[in-house]
Each structure stands twice: as structure tokens, then as C-alpha cells.
């Protein structure tokens, strides 16, 4: 099981590093658009489209890491009123629900990605389907990380954020 | 039938402790199944909801805020605010208010504001003999002004939430928020002073003199310049709102890395990683709220709510009050972005019908939702403040009333006096 | 059944919105009250691109969209979007009512859509802070375009600097001078209040890309033939109504923008037409498309 935790930690760390790279790339795209307009008097028409695509990938990775680091905001005060034993069971159910959402996300993402693979995206010349790949990636990661949380709850230890 | 599924599943999931974004997503899935439509639509709306050019300003503002947080701007703003009002009774409380407002203009979110200013000011105030509850309440309330400052990503979120209902420009709303931000700050100052006098907090030395004020201002200026980049950049037509936000990031890098030289490589990476995670959380909420919005449109929730409210009363002031109360109740349970995204399509049309301009509605909504950040059960700003102050939410809540009351007063002023929101845009932007 | 149809326009009385409502009345009468259509305008169900996809998978029954977002899906829709193709609005209406229009609507069927009708969207022209009288005037101008390869190529062929930007930012962009110009039909120039920002509307009439009414083939195929025919007929019958509404709307908007101080500039269109060679070379690539373009040009 230690192996699984290490796998998830590694995945989360890699996702976050990739997300950081993408964030910087998005800033660069938008800056390049400004430079193109004023310095070259030739607005790069791909810049906006690429920025929007990259931000999807960055966000989906951020979403998944947020699930692992318990970064998504929710209501917790009611659960704390329950006895400890129930609290843990409820927490497991919550993670199962989040995992279910991850499964649906990955599945729907795959449907759209394959269904729109033959349409061309304007400005970039890529398939329209690439917009939906992030759903597949994030959905899969969310499932993996939720399972890690469930295992941790059953064995009674915490999931340590991989990179803070 | 489908609406019942939506409402009940959402409330149950929320009460179970499912994170808000996932609760919205799962209840949307339940609803679409009840309606007999393909589940894939929920995720199409989600992707579509994230892929809007103006939304790029959100990661940029968050990123710039994180860089400033690690890059030493907070300390310099504290020094400037201290030199300005530090000598008044309850001086640290007052300079805290001024500092939070200024830093809010740089970081643009109450959460970033309270993290940055709180970690400097709250320990300092405790050391000087102020009570922890006072320190936390002053900081968390002053930080709310960040939601109205030019870098506020909630301004962008509201602008986008009005798509198809009204045309509100990002620039128009940014300008409209400036005077209300000032009113909020004055109310905060009044509350901080009043409580300080009542508790007999000490004065602290004499006025340091205008030369010292100017010196500390100059030190803080490069950081504060971000406000100018955004306002000036868009007003002069050099940038779009999104481009100005990207430029703010570059400027934050230059200031913290080259001018202040206080941003290490480690801190830089930390700021980047934090920005990515926060962006993920915020944009997921935005995207999935688009799915929620789809059902609201499909089942005509705004029209039905409007008809219901009109049947209760025809008085404009009562309608506005009812809207404020409902926003307040929802804001108690939901995060700011979620409240804005879910409630704008419902309440904007009805307020507009009773004569409130969409821009004024936006300002009102931002203040109202910001107040929700300081109340449990979901009060992110308050939680961070309490964590820094080493004090429980319960203790803070016992003495929150003067501060909270002052901001409620500000909210009512903005709700019932349109000129506070509309005069400045009419002067600066015409029409 | 109460079918659902989407539209992105905000006004409940916008010609395309009104036309589908009118079609609903016709359909209701024809089917003895069995079927009608509810219109969700203001983009309530999504952008044009999103509602096209929803229609394809059967989550939405009808969608009313501009023809441009269909270009990536069925190639023949490219033809009516081509710049300076139609000589006049009358020419356009004649072509779309004729065999060329039928062939394009039919082409949608193999991609999951029943093409029901074309509606008018008028002619798009350039408006900015300076008048455009001939090709020489657009050189180096920063002109806002939609995110579309065709529009970028078109503005490039005019020698302009095509600047893709979301419609919501255009007003500020024009007002502050970030943009020199934008392009659209008169009702949009009016509706988005862009005439308050820039005064010169130059009649380049570079595109007459029409609107389309599409039905989900998945939904259509489940209906008995008599009802399918009733839907097709009601759609066709709504076209004349839409055109009348369109002409009224255009006249009304023209009066509004003129009253607001806008100046209508006549343009040497021939100078632009001559520059369009590269655009046609880039997008009219297959024998089918070339045949259709020729058929349009030959329509008298
Ligand atoms: Na904010
Ligand atoms: Na709250």
C-alpha cells in the first residue's frame, strides 16, 4: 500500500509541476499578444486560443491536486457534531461521491474528445477534441486520489500534501 | 420535479460535507438523469464555463497576489500605514485597516489579503497588548475590501455571470467599486476606533511627520503600482482587462524579484504552485456552476423567483432588502464565487425590473457576498484570521458585531444610494 | 411535445427569436396542438458552438445559429460565408432558396442535423473611428474579428491587423482606442451600442453569412413522417416572416445609429473583391466547393 501512496504523491507532485509550467505559458501567451499588437503590429491570432486551451489543462491538474490536498471548500461543521466513528464513515462516503464524479468526468470527457476529434479548432488547427482531454486526465486523477484518501481513512492515517 | 431533485440533492450533499463544487456537480448529474438528458451535457457546460477569455484574469490576479504575498510588499504597506495612522488611539487597528485596503488593491481577494496582512499585523497587535479577537476582527473585516479593489477576481466572475442578462464591462465595474471600497474602509476605521476607545487601547507615540510618511510611501509604491497598471492600462486603451492582469503578474515578478529582491527561487515556486491549486479550486467552481446555470435557465428559475417576489411586494426598497437577505443567507453557506454565479441570474433581472442598474447590483452583491466570508459555517477569511490569531471562531463571533454592523451599514448605503456606485463611472467613462 | 430551441440573441423580439416562435405557432396549428417549440434565447442553454453539440447528441431539439460555427462540422456550409460572394441581399435570398441552399442544408444530415431553413443576418460591414472608402484605408487597421480562421484570413487579405477578441470587450476596446474598428451588421452595431464608441459605418458588406435553423436528427428520426413534414414546412414558412422582421429591424437600427450621430460611408467594393483571391484559394479547396461557388456566381 505504501507503493500506492508513493505513486499518488509522485503523480500529484508531477501534476503540480506541469501546472506551474502551464501557468507561466499562459502568462507568456497573453503577454506575447500585447507585444505582437504594439511592437510587431501583427496580433498573433493563436495566442488567445492557445491560452484558453492551456488554462484548461492547468486548471484540471490544479483541481486534481486540490482533491488530494483537500483544498476544495466545503461545509464541515455538521459532521463534527457526529461521534468519531460515524465521522469517519461519512468521510469515506464523501470521498466515494467525489470519486464517482471523477468517473463521470473522465467518461464524458472521453465521449466528447472522441466525438469531436475530426472537427478542427479555429486558430490552432488542432482537433476540437483536445478541449476535453483535461476532463479525462483530471477525472482519472480525482479517482486515484479519492481512493488514496479512503485507504488512508480505513488505516487511520493522513494524506500528506506532496508539495506545498 | 427536476428542480426538486436539484435542490434536495444539493442540500444533502452540502450537509454531508461534500466540497461545494462537487456537490454542485453531483446534483447536476442527478438532475440531468431525472430529466432524461445525456450526462455529457453537464461536462460540456463545465468546460465551456471555464473557457472564457476574461476568466484568464482570474489565475493572473491570484498569481500576482501570491507573488506579492511572498515578496515583501505586505511589510512595506504595514510600515506606510503605521506611519500614517499609527499614533491615533487604537493606532495599530487603524493602520491595519488602511494596510488591508491597500494590499487588497494588489492581491484582489479577501483571502490573500487576510493571509498576507494578517500574518504581519495580528501577531504585532497581540504583542502590543491588543486582544486577539479585536486583532482578528479588524483584519478579517478590512480584508473584505479586497473584493472591491481593481484586482478583484470576483469582479470578473460577476461580469461573466451577467452574460446574456445585462452588459456590464469589467472596466465599468472596477471603476464603480472604488467609492464603495472607500466607504467600506471608512466604516472599518470607525468601528476599529470606536472599539479601541471603548476598550481603552493605548496610543502609541507621536506622529512621525510627513517626511517619514512620504519615505514609507515611496517604499510601498512599486507594489501599489499594480493598481495603476490595471486602472490606467484599461482606461487608456493599452490593454484589455485580461492583458492588464497578465501585465500585473510580470510587474509583481519585477517588483518582488528585482526591486525588493525579497522573492527567493523557493518562494517563487511556492507562489506558482499555490496559484495553480487556487485557480483549480476557483475555476472548477466557475465551470460547474455553468451546469447549474443551465438547469436554472431550462426550468426558468429566475422568472419564477421574480414572479414570486413580485407577488409578495411591489415596493422597490423591500425587494432590494429581500434580495440582500437571501444573498446573506446563501452567502453564509456558500463561498463567494459560488454565490455570485448561482444568484446573479436569479436576482439581477428582478432588481433591474425595480430600477437598480446592473452595475450597482454588482457592487451590492460583491459587498454582501464578501460579508459571508466572515460568518461560519463557511467563512474562509474568518477561518484564516482565526488560525493566524490562535483563537476560536466562537470567541471571535462574540465581539464581531461592531465590525460586522459597520459593514452592513455600508452595504445598505450602497444598496439605497445609487450615486455611490454610478457617479464615478459616469464621470470617467461617460454615459 | 414542447420542443426546445436555443438562440443567443438577448431581445425576445429579435428577428430569429420571433421567427422560431412564429414557427411554433404554425407547427401547433398543423399538428392539432400536439407539437410546439419553446425558445430559450439570451444564450441561456449555451453558446452557438455548445448548443450545436447538444443538438447533435439529442440533448436539445432545435438550435438557431449563425452558419459560421457549422463550418468545422459540415464543409459545404463554408460557401455562403465566403466574402463578397453575394452581389446583394436579393441575390443571397435567391441562392439560399434555390438548389444551392438545399444542397447545403442536406449536407448537414450526415453530421447529425436536419437543416431546416436559412434566416437572414444582413450584410456585415466595417465600422471604426475612421471611414473606410477603399482597400487602401484598411491597411494596418486593428480590426476585431471572431475566433475563426476564415475571418482572420479575410482581414489579412484586406491588409488589416485582425485582432480576435470576445464581443463583450469590444465596446471598451473601441472606446479606448485599443481597436481601430470592428465589423458586424447594423442591428449589432446598434444593439451592442458600438455606435456610441465609433462613428463611421462603412458599407463594405464583405459577408452575408446567413443564420441557420437546425434540428437534432436523433429527435427527428423518432417522429412519424407526417410530423416530420409538418416541421419542415413550418420552418420553411417562417422564413418569409423572419426576412420581413429582419428588414424592419435593420431599418429601425439604421435610424437609431444615425440618430446617435453615426455616418454611413459608401465604399468602393470592387477594390476589396479583387483582393479576395487568397481567401478563396485557402478555403474553397474541394471540387464540390468550387462547383457550389460557381453555381452561386451563376445564379442571376
Ligand atoms: Na476577490
Ligand atoms: Na459564510
Automatic annotation (TrEMBL), chain A:
Protein topology in the membrane: Multi-pass membrane protein
Protein's name according to its UniProt entry: TRAP transporter small permease protein
Keyword Cell membrane set for record: yes
Record-stated family: Belongs to the TRAP transporter small permease family.
Example GO BP: C4-dicarboxylate transport
Quaternary context: The complex comprises the extracytoplasmic solute receptor protein and the two transmembrane proteins.
Pfam family, one: DctQ
Keyword Secreted belongs to the record: no
Tripartite ATP-independent periplasmic transporters DctQ component domain mapped to chain residues: 27-155
Transmembrane segments: 12-34, 46-67, 90-112, 132-154
Key words, A-Z: Cell inner membrane, Cell membrane, Membrane, Transmembrane, Transmembrane helix, Transport
Subcellular location(s) per record: Cell inner membrane
Function, in words: Part of the tripartite ATP-independent periplasmic (TRAP) transport system.
UniProtKB/TrEMBL annotation, chain B:
InterPro entries for the chain: DctM, TRAP_DctM
GO cellular component terms given for this protein: plasma membrane
MF annotations from Gene Ontology: transmembrane transporter activity
Keywords annotated in UniProt: Cell inner membrane, Cell membrane, Membrane, Transmembrane, Transmembrane helix, Transport
Membrane topology: Multi-pass membrane protein
Domain TRAP C4-dicarboxylate transport system permease DctM subunit residues, every copy: 8-420
Subcellular location: Cell inner membrane
Pfam families: DctM
Regions crossing the membrane: 50-70, 134-158, 170-196, 217-239, 245-263, 275-297, 317-342, 403-424
Subunit-level organization: The complex comprises the extracytoplasmic solute receptor protein and the two transmembrane proteins.
PANTHER family per record: SIALIC ACID TRAP TRANSPORTER PERMEASE PROTEIN SIAT-RELATED (PTHR33362), TRAP TRANSPORTER LARGE PERMEASE PROTEIN (PTHR33362:SF2)
Similarity annotation: Belongs to the TRAP transporter large permease family.
Role played: Part of the tripartite ATP-independent periplasmic (TRAP) transport system.
Protein name: TRAP transporter large permease protein
